[in-house]
Write a structure and sequence with these properties.
Chain C: One of its GO terms (molecular function) is ATP hydrolysis activity. The complex is a heterotrimer of chains A (363), B (328) and C (270). Chain A is mainly alpha-helical and 363 residues long. Chain A is built from 14 helices and no strands. Chain A is 72% helix and 0% strand. Chain A is flat. By secondary structure, chain B is mostly helical. Chain B has one domain: MetI-like fold, CATH 1.10.3720. The chains are: A mainly alpha (363), B mainly alpha (328), C alpha/beta (270).
């Protein structure tokens, strides 16, 4: 179908009725259904071509059809509408393809994780640990890793959230002049610290103080808090700046001191946004692997003590099982599924909080 | 009618006190201000501590003689500098490739969301792209090593057999555990960061500029090229730098996908050629002790400095831009 | 009952004397050398062209200008013998005695109507019994002529009201703290004519109990509601605003002593 215009003579452009000289010449345009026709034609053609060349697979048909569509529609439009509109159509197609292409990794990733992860994913998987699991045994689970991840992430949040919120308050409500500008800049710089460097920092700090063999969950928590704090600061700062100044003035005019105004009016008004920001920050660091690999390592059983001994976390567990190979790979996928579920639930809760608890009039 | 009932409310007023003396609340207020300022200063102290502790722990390796360093089992270089050199090269190569993949795609996606997709859908589409940022890096590693590598295998085979005369594509050996696979995964990982910034910048294009272009009879693409892209150029540069910063420090995807090597090599499809600083640290750290820890921390220090420079450059561009355009 | 209430309130309304007051933003002199007396239990209107410093001056009467970074004041503002700018005076205490209503109604979006009225009490961590709170809500809303409209929906958010109602809610919120003076910064400029009328009526009632200072762009409004009027003017951009003259409203509008005042009032500029 799409190839039809290709074969038609290129020397038949604009409709002959009106001369190109006329300033108000009506432009001949492709019909609205043209892109759809081109898409359908490309798919059919691509299928036929791959059938001739060998066995058609979904991916190869789609990829080939995309190329046909791109060339076919542009050529068709060039013939009927002229070069400017052909370029416009080409750009539209490319931009749309870019978005479609981005969906490929997302969908394939989610699909792979769900399909491969569900192989050993079960309630038992969630509440057993890895004690006594070796060789090709398919038993074992992530209970200890979930506990470790929750403890370490909670500790990281306990460090980052107060510092983050107070820093944001400083930047929005008190900070003036070079010091505030400097801190803003440093927060930006901190956002860019590689996670492995955060891990090295926590390792250096604790082993210098407690001796070279010291390993504990708190080391991982400190590393994660280094990554989490700038994220918390940024989102809280944004939320505080959204609170209209009129509300602060209203409180001041009632004789409310500044600090109470901040706590009871500004924070109260922004609370939904702050909770959302904190949850997103938690979701961001809960999947961090590298710093935990360096600091808290991995063990087979539950460790409840944040201040003593190795701990297992979900991401490190997934990596560890992957590198062991064999039956471990299935457990790695299942751990990845668990992790993604936790992250998605956190994201979902965060969106719901921001949707239902933000004050309506402030928008 | 409109008169305050006096009976009970009088308690609330401070009639007995002198009119407007300083209240006790001042202490709490100052404490609160002091507390939040202290939190702000923590950021400063923390960054200084990161640099300080890394230097402190890297110091033994920085000052050790090559002979001492070569006692480390994996240290096969003349000096620390010649050890970290190929690592820096590998890190930069992987990140730049990732950037080459991600930037054009991100621009396309951002344009699609900001100027092509229906307004009502835009926010939801943005959220879908943001989902990519929510996926943990270890999952990307799994996906890259176990799903993407087999998928890329036939493509790479075709590349090396038909374009193998170009050194870039020569010498492919399955499985696809080479730097190009790692870079593709890195590219996907930084896609949402660049897209998010680019989208914001594109949406800030003054409507007047866009309408002026359309009023001149421009097509949508011409409008984008005349009004949107020039306006967003510096924003795009800084977005790319942020993405680069992220790619430089990414550990797991490289660690799980790349089969490592320590060469200055442009054979993108050959395994055992490259390694990144972060992945190298993660691979060797668990077994390291003594001087080898210091040596690894020294490479980490190099990574820290590189990302710091890249990020500061990005921020500098952003701040310059906001000063000039009046938009933030 | 009514009489008793009046007596109870009498001492609360206070007069303010301002002497040689200068207001600066950083190094920029915004308002120069203002001296005036604001009488108790009356409405004083501040009029003048945009940017003449009347709003800035109004804010200095409860030290709200200090919220703006770099703003400072020289001179004296004395309220019943107490200089508001003396060293040992807490600006927060000043604001409890000199309430303020803003240009745009700004009820707290997270609070209900009743909570908004109680905001001054609650935000200051003061304890108040339930029945006292209910009384305070009712009396303040009645004083703001809003009680009958909202008494059935006190638990609804303050933002659910119309603009004019929101502004009266803000007035109720301001008088629930029981200030001596009420400052109003163009309180009707964001409202429709009917809501404006309601606020103007309210001002005439409130002046029995409060000292009211109102900034307005609307000269008919100044003429309708105020007892005394002060005219501010500015010589040009970058120059400070000054008080040109102040007199009884009837005098100001019939036979002002300054030509500039007459030009402004008769609409020749501004």
């Amino acid at each position: 179908m799409t190839t039809l215009p290709l074969s038609s003579t290129p020397a038949a452009p604009a409709p002959p009725g009106r001369g190109a000289a006329s300033g108000t010449a009506r432009r001949s345009r492709l019909k609205p259904w043209a892109p759809w026709a081109a898409a359908g034609g490309s798919l059919v053609l691509a299928f036929l071509v791959t059938l001739v060349a060998g066995t058609p697979s979904f991916a190869s048909v789609v990829a080939l059809a995309a190329v046909f569509y791109l060339v076919g529609l542009t050529a068709w439009s060039r013939i009927v509408e002229g070069p400017r509109w052909a370029t416009d159509r080409l750009a539209t197609t490319l931009v749309t393809f870019a978005f479609g292409l981005a969906l490929v990794p997302l969908i394939s990733l989610l699909w792979t994780v769900v399909s491969k992860g569900s192989k050993v994913f079960s309630l038992t998987f969630l509440n057993t640990n890895m004690v006594g699991v070796f060789g090709d045994m398919t038993e074992g689970g992530v209970y200890h890793a979930i506990i470790g991840t929750v403890l370490i992430t909670a500790a990281a949040a306990a460090i980052s959230v107060p510092i983050g919120i107070l820093t944001a308050i400083y930047l929005v409500e008190y900070g003036r002049g070079p010091m505030a500008r400097g801190i803003t800049f440093l927060v930006d710089v901190m956002t860019g610290i590689p996670s492995i460097v955060a891990g090295l920092f926590a390792f250096s700090l604790f082993t210098l103080i407690f001796g070279p063999a010291y390993r504990a969950g708190i080391m991982g928590a400190v590393a994660l808090s280094l990554l989490m704090t700038p994220v918390v600061i940024r989102s809280v700062e944004e939320m505080l700046r959204l609170v209209p100044n009129e509300l602060r003035e209203a409180a001041y005019a009632l004789g409310v001191p500044k600090w109470l105004t901040i706590i009871k009016v500004v924070l109260r008004t922004a609370i939904a946004g702050i909770v959302t920001g904190v949850m997103l920050a938690v979701a961001r660091v809960i999947g961090e692997t590298a710093p935990l690999l360096l600091t808290v390592g991995i063990i087979t059983k539950v460790n409840w003590d944040l201040f003593d001994g190795l701990m297992t976390t979900l991401p490190v567990y997934a990596y560890n099982q992957y590198s062991q190979g064999g039956a471990g790979v299935d457990r790695a996928w299942a751990a990845a599924l668990t992790l993604i579920l936790i992250v998605m639930v956190l994201n979902l809760i965060a969106r719901l909080v921001s949707k239902f608890f933000s004050p309506k009039a402030a928008r | 009618m409109a008169v305050l009932s006096p009976a009970k409310t009088t308690k609330l007023t401070s009639e007995d006190e002198p009119a407007v003396k300083r209240s006790k609340g001042g202490i709490a207020g100052r404490l609160f201000q002091w507390l939040s300022t202290a939190a702000g200063l923590t950021i400063l102290v923390t960054l200084a501590a990161v640099a300080g502790f890394l230097i402190l722990r890297a110091w033994p390796a920085l000052t050790a003689s090559p002979a001492e360093l070569q006692e480390i089992s994996w240290f096969k270089a003349d000096s620390l500098l010649s050890y970290v050199g190929p690592l820096i090269f590998g890190t930069l190569l992987a990140s730049v490739l990732a950037l080459l993949i991600a930037v054009p795609l991100s621009v396309g996606i951002a344009l699609f969301i900001s100027h092509y997709a229906p307004r009502r859908l835009a926010q939801g589409l943005g959220y879908i792209i943001d989902l990519l940022a929510a996926i943990p890096s270890v999952v990307y590693g799994l996906w890259g090593a176990l799903w993407l590598a087999p998928v890329l295998n036939p493509i790479f085979e075709w590349l090396t057999s038909s374009l193998g005369f170009i050194p870039l594509f020569a010498g492919y050996q399955p499985p696809a555990k080479n730097i190009l696979t790692a870079s593709i995964v890195l590219g996907v990982m930084i896609l949402p960061i660049i897209t998010a910034v680019a989208r914001e910048v594109f949406l800030q294009t003054p409507r007047l500029h866009e309408e002026a272009a359309l009023a001149l009879g421009a097509t949508r693409w011409e409008m984008v090229r005349m009004a949107v892209l020039p306006f967003g150029r510096s924003g795009l540069v800084s977005a790319s730098m942020l993405g680069l910063g992220r790619a430089l420090g990414e550990t797991m995807a490289v660690l799980m996908i790349l089969s490592p090597g320590f060469l200055y090599s442009f054979f993108l499809l050959e395994p055992g050629q490259h390694q990144s600083i972060a992945a190298n640290i993660a691979a060797k750290f668990p077994e390291a002790s003594g001087l080898s820890v210091s040596a690894l921390i020294a490479t980490g220090l190099a990574l820290f400095v590189i990302t710091l420079v890249v990020n500061m450059f990005a921020r500098w561009i952003i701040s310059r831009r906001s000063e000039f355009s009046g938009a933030n | 009952m009514l009489g008793a209430a009046k007596k109870e309130r009498l001492h609360m309304s206070k007069r303010i004397e301002v002497n040689d007051l200068n207001v600066y933003y950083g190094d920029f002199l915004a308002v120069e050398d203002v001296s005036m007396t604001i009488e108790a239990r009356s409405v004083t209107a501040l009029i003048g062209p945009s940017g003449c410093g009347k709003s800035t001056f109004l804010r200095t009467l409860n030290r709200m200008h200090e919220v703006i970074p770099g703003a400072r004041v020289q001179g004296k503002a004395v309220m019943d013998g107490q200089n508001l700018y003396a060293d040992d005076v807490d600006p927060v205490e000043v604001r409890r005695q000199v309430g303020m209503v803003f240009q745009r109604p700004n009820p707290f979006p997270t609070m209900s109507i009743a909570e908004n009225v109680l905001a001054g009490v609650k935000l200051n961590n003061k304890r108040i019994s339930k029945s006292d709170a209910n009384d305070l809500v009712e009396s303040s809303l009645q004083a703001a002529n809003l009680w009958n409209e909202v008494k059935d929906r006190l638990a609804r958010p303050g933002s659910s009201l119309s603009g004019g109602q929101q502004q009266r809610l803000c007035i109720a919120r301001a008088i629930a703290v029981r200030p001596d003076v009420l400052l109003m910064d163009e309180p009707c400029s964001a409202l429709d004519p009917i809501s404006t009328l309601a606020i103007e009526d309210l001002m005439s009632e409130l002046k029995n109990d409060y000292t009211i200072v109102v900034v307005t762009h609307n000269m008919q409004q100044a003429a309708r509601v105020s007892d005394r009027t002060a005219f501010f003017n500015i010589a040009g951009t970058g120059k400070p605003g000054r008080l040109i003259e102040m007199d009884d409203t009837s005098t100001m509008f019939s036979s002002p002593s300054q030509q500039a005042t007459e030009d402004y009032i008769s609409g020749r500029f501004g």
